[in-house]
Amino acid sequence: MLHQDKEKEVTLLMIMQGIQKIEKRTENIEQRTKKTDEKVENIQQLMMKYEDRFKKIEEQIGQRDEKVGDIDTRLSEVEKGRSCPLGWEIDRSKFYLRLQNVKKEKGENLAETMTEILAEALKITK
User: Fold this and answer.
1) How far apart are CA 75 and CA 60, in angstroms?
2) Nearest-angstrom CA–CA distance, 113 and 103
3) Angle between helices 110-122 and 2-100 (to 10 degrees)
4) Of 2, 71, 90, 114, whose Cβ has the fewest other Cβ atoms within 10 Å?
5) What are the distances in angstroms from CA 112 to CA 45, 90, 109, 115, 119?
6) Is residue 115 part of a domain?
7) When comparing pLDDT for 2 and 15, which is higher?
8) Is position 117 within any domain?
9) What is the pLDDT of residues 64-115, one digit of tens each?
10) What counts of helices (H) and strands (E) characterise the chain?
11) Which of 27, 9, 5 is closest to 17 using CA atoms?
């Protein structure tokens, strides 16, 4: 009987040690899980901050694009305003030079040449 009691005690002691090991492992797992949860929460907060930053940057880009578009439109208008009279002067000069180059000895018809030049300038057919 004493021998059986000792065996029971040893078995009980071994079971208690096993339970203690399991409890320690469980505590370690819980601590790691808690740390992991904290890290995940920190990552989520960082993601939210970066999303806010991205939104602000996208808004700034949109505003810059609008400004660039406005500037581009203004430049186009300025270029049209400046180039139109100059272009018209160049076209007019070409027109007069062409008429001056019409020679009667070539047998060209002045009226026909003028019609061709005007049709070309106005982009219409004869």
Assistant:
1) 22
2) 11
3) 160
4) 2
5) 80, 22, 5, 5, 10
6) yes
7) 15
8) yes
9) 888 888 777 877 776 666 555 556 666 666 666 665 665 554 666 666 777 7
10) 2, 0
11) 9
Question: In the structure encoding, which two tokens stand for residue 78, read together?
Answer: 């300025």
Side-chain-side CA neighbours of residue 112 (13 Å): 5
Residue 108, token pair as written in the block: 């060209």
Domain-embedded: residue 37: no
As a whole number of angstroms, the distance between CA 87 and CA 80 comes to 10
Domain count, the chain: 1
* One-letter amino acid for residue 91 of the chain: D
Q: Which segments within the chain are labelled E, that is strand? A: none
Cβ(109)–Cβ(120) below 8 Å:
no
Please tell me what DSSP assigns to residue 46.
H
Residue 50 has pLDDT above 90, yes or no: yes
The model's pTM: 0.43
Give the residue among 87, 105, 101 at the shortest CA–CA distance from 117.
Answer: 101
CA angle 17, 21, 22 (to 5 degrees): 115
For the record, the structure tokens of 88 come out as 């018209």
